[in-house]
Write a structure and sequence with these properties.
By secondary structure, the chain is mainly alpha-helical. The chain has seven helices and no strands. It has one domain. The protein starts with a helix and ends in a 20-residue tail after the last helix.
Length: 172
Amino acid sequence: MLNHGIIVAALFILIGFLYQRRGSWQTTEMRGLQKAAPVLAAVFTVVMMASIGVPGLNGFVSEFLVLAGTFITHRWWAVVAVVGVIIAAIYLLWAYQQVFHGEPGADEKTRDLVLIERLVMAPLIILIVFLGVYPSRCSTASTRRSTSSLRMWKPPRARPSPGGGPRRGGIK
């Protein structure tokens, strides 16, 4: 959930930056932003690739662990999840192509990320790459805490019924 939160936060911030610049959510109204805003396009590419689950970024680790665990217990649900991942990748790549590639219109003046916006995105990009390259830093701590929590939990014991034996029938 940590990886998902980082990726979604970065995507929402980037979408906000795009809306602030273009005044629209419509992908059809945005074309060729990569020429006018190359840093914004690069940051969006990294975050989008993390969301898709490209190896080396934090989204891959999460997707792999979830899909591997699901495949062990419920193979058909894992197949459905893989189809969902593929559909999400197609959608994100299509949206990126619509917004950042192509020829910009004559009236499209879009500025690139300014310093404060780059400073906002930098920690998120660093976390996306760091947790993708070194996933054990976070997963080891999480595993230790989960294991210690599970050791403290004891399943409830079955209470013996009054009279020593199993209860049968109605009310006494």
